[in-house]
Amino acid sequence: MLDELSDVGYGALTIESAARRAGVGKATIYRHWPDKIALIADAFKLLQQQRDPELVTGSPREKLERILRHVADVVADSPFSACLPALIDGAERDRAVRRFHHQFQAEARKPTIALIANGVASGDFPARIDPELAAFALLGAIFFCRLMTGTPFPQERVSALIDTVIRRERVTRLNRRGERA
Predict the structure, then answer these.
(1) What is the predicted pLDDT for the residue at 140?
(2) What is the CATH number of the domain that holds 116?
(3) CB 36 within 8 A of CB 14
(4) What's the pTM?
(5) What are the per-10-residue average pLDDT scores of the chain (181 residues)?
(6) Each residue of 121-142: b (16+ CB within 10 Å) or e?
(7) How many domains does the chain have?
(8) Domain boundaries, position 152
(9) Cβ atoms < 10 Å from Cβ of 4
């Protein structure tokens, strides 16, 4: 199904073409999904569940690095990545696809936002950090590279990205004489 979406785009994707590619009748598809948006939604949810990184162990910083490396990998080369341009194009033309796309992305961002918020609350990240804006900045850099440049975001630069967005300021205090305190 996702292969069909990435190959033909949202506009040309039909239940019939997805069924043909899957080797089943279209009635089989309609028994489980009322329309192609529902089919795409379930395919994306399943893909996400199968590939989500482990977030039980580690510091907030380590978990955030794991999430961002995972996103960089998925956005660089996966069925989701292959479908991304078709989904964006479909969202520009179809209100229902736009609603699905926005809801899917909002749900996908929640763990990153929560993780950053927990890191701020625990003192692992600076108190000045707005978790939602930080998530947009971190994830946005990865998606920007995928969609607007010819090169996916390199996983080895995730740590530098986090340092750039969520940098702990080291303030050196000076006493009245201008000496470090």
Answers:
(1) 96
(2) 1.10.357.10
(3) yes
(4) 0.81
(5) 81 88 91 91 82 85 94 86 86 91 91 96 95 97 92 95 84 56 53
(6) eeebbeeebebeebbbebbebb
(7) 1
(8) 40-165
(9) 22
